[in-house]
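Team,

Forwarding the record for the chain on the shared tracking sheet. I've put the sequence and predicted structure together so nobody has to dig through attachments.
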Amino acid sequence: MSSQSQFSPQARSAAPHSLFCPSISPCIFVVVLFASVGLFVCMSMDLANDGLEKTNFIAPGTLRHKIHASLPTTFWKLNPHGEAYWNQLQLLIDRNFSPILHPKFRKNGFENTVLSESLLRQSFFEASDLTNMTRNFDEMPQKIQDFVSNMDKRDYPTVIQPDGVCGAGAKDEKGPPLLLLVIKTTESNFKNRQAIRQTWGEVGWVAGQNGSSSGGYVRRVFLLGKESQEELGVDLSELLEQEGKHFGDILQWDFQDTFFNLTLKDVHFWSWFSRFCGQTRFIFKGDDDVFVNTPKLITYLQDQLQKPQAHGTMPDFMVGDVIGAAFPNRMNNSKYYIPDSFYKGLYPAYAGGGGVVYSGLLSRRLHDVSKRVHLFPIDDVYVGMCMNRLEAYPVHHPAFLTFDFPEKEANELCSYHRVLLVHKRSPSQLVRVWSHMKETQTQCSNVTLRE
């Protein structure tokens, strides 16, 4: 009986279990040990990296760390550079056009002019935390105070404008203008305007390099505000009106013509261009103290239009002397001075100096997007801010010499034939340079642009 019990089916089935349990216990123990050690290490790492945890939710720029992925600078920022006045105002606008908070803007290409203008006005009332700006306001230079006091105004009446056309041009144009020369000037700078009219600013058909047939029609317009009669000691309004009637190239608005109001000239010009210059392909925008190699520029622009990808690139086309990642000037004796209570952060890439070239298509896009970008005291930087919100970027070209020639290059026979722009030149210098260009045209016919 006992032997039968020992080898019964029940006994046989139980035997393997009793043998297996003692052998598996060490394995379980080892697994538990490894799990405990792993948990302890993970908890230690979490504690060690606790100081970095907050950076996962704020994007102050590109974050590089071996345990974090890089964060692009375009990520949403929860802390808009402290209490800087412009940054706070602009953040209120940008939030309304965030593709995350308002997907319809990105999905439908939504651009509502009335909404944008309304948001600009509304942001001045919504910005409540402006303590730092208010506290330092009286200590700022007068020009900063004047700008801040009026930066909510951007719709000024037109005083003088060409008669329903896109600037001055030839009466017998047989095609749409290739290039509109847009020059920022002041009422008292008549000599500068006249020198430009007689040299690189001539209108009508302009042949390209070597007098080739691949030229284009050129038009011209000067942009002005109103100078203070007290500072000038004379009223130039009647003379300017007569100048506008004679040349047909004066476009003036009723705002004070100061350095910080140059941005208003851009904003108002984009609006005017959208109304009167529907067929113009390109714009040169510059100051009245620069030299422009117009024939070479005509050839360069024609070459851009011949490129296979031209149709796709023209809506973003801008070329000049590009300045990237520049710091604001904090020297309070500089005309470019921007206090950190007004703006913090780097400037976006922008085409600086005395001149830039961009497409007519881009001008219309800049007109639209400018309605949701707060005015900024430096005009070149403001254009860069608008470009940034269009996700368009200016292209750098070495032929734009915004800080003049390098030392030895200026004395070369064909130096001016190799550039598109040189800054800066007086009216008498413009006349001499233009004459030199004509005299050396044959000798320098085959030179290429600076690279």
